[in-house]
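Contributing new records

If you add data, match the layout below exactly. Sequence lines come first and carry their own label; structure lines follow with theirs. Keep one chain per record. Anything else will be rejected by the validation script.
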Amino acid sequence: MKAEILDQLLDEFAPPASSLSRGEDYLLGRPGLQVDKFFVAWSAAQLEGIIRKSRKGDGAYVAYLGCLNERLRFLFSLGLKGCDDFVVRFVNPAWRYHSWGVAARLAKDLGMEEARPVQVLGRERSFKVVAFVPTADIARVRESLFGVGGGRYGLYSKCSFSTSGKGTFYGKKGSKPTYGEAGRLEEVAEERLEVLVPSDRIGKAISALKKAHPYEEPVIETYEVGSRREFGEGRAGVLARPMGATEASRRIASVLGSQPVYLSRESQCSKAMIWDGEPDRGIYEALVRDVDLYVGPDSKGLAKLMGDGMQAGVIEFPQYRFLMAGARELIYMVRDKSKRETWGLRTFLPSKVGREGDKA
């Protein structure tokens, strides 16, 4: 498969936004390269390991989730010069800010109600999916869209709209109509079904709809609509029920796959903040917002130095673990698409800093 196809998937994972810098959205290598392996990396050591261990002649696509500046970009371009079998994509940081980002995922696992971004950067893209479905099959097709995350508005789910009408078609020779016969004009009672789908689910929604739809050639329309769902850095909100810092730590550890490097004190918490960006900025935001539970990356002793001034339970995890959680989401997205489209793409999940990773 060509690298351009993976570029399109990366655009879904980290959609560009006018309020975000595109400085990190950068490609090195040949876009037309045929690739059969997909990696995720966030350090120069991982890039070196991937290139060193991959066999010559095998096309590989590497999504780089780490921080990048002009100096690093220049050094990477020099280091990768002459590596004709690789495409390296520096992924826009927008992937962290959306509802499928790590902070939002952790907020959900903690049971945070109405979690909002700590720093709002914009609104997520959403699409209206429209399909014309025989009345007898409308329930099954509608449920297929609900099953992949369509039809959600805030605290409401399984939202849709449909209107009744008549559909006509004429099947040519070789067609196999579900209703009626080929070679004559048919008229079928149909429903126009409309369901809102977030941008990160649009691919799955179309695939699920086609699988559930009874027609040989279903008519499906998609168009972008305004969204009320905000995106941005971090998440803050009130927990559905108060919980101790130790319990919160266990829940987060199950997602990040790591024990905390710092747990300040045991306390009952209800107002929480999740942060996966720069540690000093996160601690500052937690102080300003007066939360009683703060979860963030390792601040190398800064949170401990603050001591009682935090007035909150503090839980810190290795910073790279937040990146690994995002890398897993990306790997699963690409692997799922590869299976549906029968690409035969091999995906590799990074294990820890400095290693190539484990095959996913």
